[in-house]
Amino acid sequence: MQSGGSSGYNGTMLLSRIVRFYADGFRRMTLGRTLWCIILIKLFIMFAVLKVFFFPAYLQGDEQEKQQQVSAELTERIAP
Amino acid sequence: MEPIDSSLVDWSRAQFALTAMYHWLFVPLTLGLGVVMAIMETLYVRTGREFWKRTARFWMKLFGINFAMGVATGIILEFEFGTNWSNYSWFVGDIFGAPLAIEGILAFFMESTFIAVMYFGWNKVSKRAHLASTWLTIIGATLSAWWILVANAWMQHPVGMEFNPDTVRNEMVDFAAVAFSPVAVVKFCHTVTSSWVLGAVFVVGVSCWYLLRGQHREFALSSIRVAAWFGLAASLLTAHTGHLSGRDIALYQPMKLAAAEGLYAGGTEQGLVLGGILRPGADWTAGTDDERFLLKVELPYALSYLATHDLHGYVPGIRNLLEGGYKLPDGSVALSAEEMMKRGRVAIDALAVYRSTENPEEKAAALTTLRQNFPWFGYGYLKSPRELVPPVPLTFYSFRIMVMLGGYFIVLFAGLLLLGQRVTRWKPVQLAVVLTIPLAWLASQAGWVVAEVGRQPWSIQGLLPNVAAISRLDTGSVQTTFFIFLVLFTLLLVAELSIMGKAIATGPEPEST
Predict the structure, then answer these.
(1) Per the CB < 8 Å rule, is B91 touching A74?
(2) Are B114 and B133 a contacting pair, CB within 8 Å?
């Protein structure tokens, strides 16, 4: 019991050290703040704008329907 | 069903090329600069000199800027797979999915874990633990590249799969054959070593810029020494892997080799074109064997040796590849393009029958026919043998740019090593090295142009041409996204260059007193 408790305590300590490590790192960033801003703006543009409005999945429906769509395209695009 | 408009194919290709080329501005610098900064940190750990720590930290800062700007630029390519290349995405099935999934996991877990220790861990973890994190960051990035290149290599030389007509997908039957195909291995080695060259050119270029301005002399000279040794070794490895790559192309994509060499009528004892000017407007898809060069300088026998490891080996030209009838390395006779197109149409018809009939005997017969003719499946979508010829001038000149610049980099690194500290007195050399920085990107992009333009019209070599791979979209919508990307990428590039420029102008941290 005691050793289980100790390992639980150690685990919490480790987690807390990792969180502090990251928090400290982010707090001390200088140029990194600008870079993170650019990354977040970029991800927003990609996932909230480009993916939603310009890049919908072309194949629709369940697996069976997608198979049918591709099969129809591949067999009907044969050269005359 | 309406036939696919050729302008849709062209715009889909242009859009993919734009995004891939933009993505590739960042990747090689990550791979190359990453190793240089890791070497410098290794020198710090080995010697204990603070100088090397400051040097490593400076290059790490530039690495971080490049890494941040490049993050997620590859994701757009995956959007395009689902929207613009839906038939292709479905057809490749788990062959493409598995390497990309492994790449995603590696990129996310390995890079994101160790890059955090690399940037946040100075003075918080031991020197050796920090050094290990730096190396593991770059190893993680390099392993990510491995899986992307495995996927690309499969498109150039599809192996280790079986086509399932029930799902209309290729299914992986031999993971090792896909992951370690000779094309994948050589492609990985050539791509990574050439990225090291680019990283080294960047370091010597920026260092020479400091020398030109009379700043950070010791830092610049030390950086040049490390990067020049690394760059020279990487350049020689790139030349060797390039030779191996040429051999693969001769075996698996002979049309690409013929286009890269401007070889219309092949034969034995073929010379390698060292440099030349193609006749403008020459028809590379048909016609007689008239000279298609205005000027060329050849290295006798070299192409035969490169392609067959025999000075007298036979190398087919474009005309031979279209007409067939020559002897292949395995002793069989090459089929003509017309014959391959006929077999492709038989395979596609068999797939249609297999999927439409309920009769078990007809289904079994269709399956047998499909399997027998599947190696030529993609040829059935082509209307004319001419479509099998890639754009020759673009492939030819891109190849020459890549090779000539590769040779120039060897001379550059060797020259810098010979000059040593004397480079501080040679302003024109310093200027030339600074001006070489963009040439490293030009060489790298030219290499990809050879690899990708040279394999047209294929999305997957022999199995799926672009005309069958793309989604049936409105051409206008593809044009719109192309221009959106152009604007977006230009803005991001300006932002990166500006941030990178400021960081370079600031220079390394001052020596602590």
Answers:
(1) yes
(2) yes
By the 8 A CB rule, do A49 and A41 touch? no
- Structural element, H or E, at residue B296: strand B293-299
* Count of the separate structural domains present in chain A: 1
Backbone angles phi, psi at B140, to 5 degrees: -60, -45
From CA B293, how far away is CA B256, in angstroms rounded?
A: 18
Q: Which residues contact A49 (CB under 8 A, 6 or more apart)?
A: none
- B75–chain A nearest CA distance, Å: 8
- At B294, which helix (H) or strand (E)? strand B293-299
Nearest to B433 by CA among B199, B202, B217: B202
Domain that holds residue A21: 2-76
The type of residue at B24 is W
Q: What angle do CA B486, B487, B489 make, to 5 degrees?
A: 65
Model confidence pLDDT, tens digit, residues B40-91: 999 999 999 999 999 999 999 999 999 988 887 888 888 898 899 999 999 9
Residues of A with CB under 8 A from a CB of B: 21-22, 24-26, 28, 31-32, 34-36, 38-39, 42-43, 45-46, 50-51, 54-59, 63, 66-67, 70-80
The alpha-helical segments, DSSP class H, found in B157-216 are 175-179, 182-212
pLDDT tens digit string along B325-368?
999 988 899 999 999 999 999 999 999 999 999 999 999 999 99
Instruction: With CA atoms as reference, report the closest residue to B30 among B106, B142, B122.
Output: B142
Q: Where are the alpha helices (DSSP H) in A2-56?
A: 2-27, 31-44
Question: What is the separation of C-alpha B430 from the centre of its chain, rounded to a whole number of angstroms?
Answer: 30
pLDDT band at A5 (very low <50, low <70, confident <90, very high): low
Q: What does the angle CA B90 – CA B92 – CA B95 come to, to the nearest 5 degrees?
A: 130
CA angle B488, B25, B194 (to 5 degrees): 170
CA-nearest of B381, B355, B359 to B169 is B355
Enumerate the residues of chain B whose CB falls inside 8 A of the CB of residue A23: none
The three-state (H, E, C) secondary structure of B331-352, written as one string: CCECCCHHHHHHHHHHHHHHHH
Q: How far apart are CA A63 and CA A68, in angstroms?
A: 9
- pLDDT value at residue A4: 53
* Yes or no, beta carbons of A50 and B76 under 8 Å apart: yes
B293/B279 Cα distance (integer angstroms): 5
B473–A58 CB contact, under 8 Å: yes
Collapsing DSSP to helix, strand or coil, B311 comes out as coil
Tell me how far apart the alpha carbons of residues B175 and B179 are, in angstroms, rounded to a whole number: 6
How far does B159 lie from chain A, in Å, by closest CA?
A: 21
CA–CA distance, A75 with B241 (Å, rounded to integer): 40
Question: Coil, helix or strand for B120?
Answer: helix
Q: Convert the pLDDT of each residue in B360-381 to its tens digit.
A: 999 999 999 999 999 999 999 9
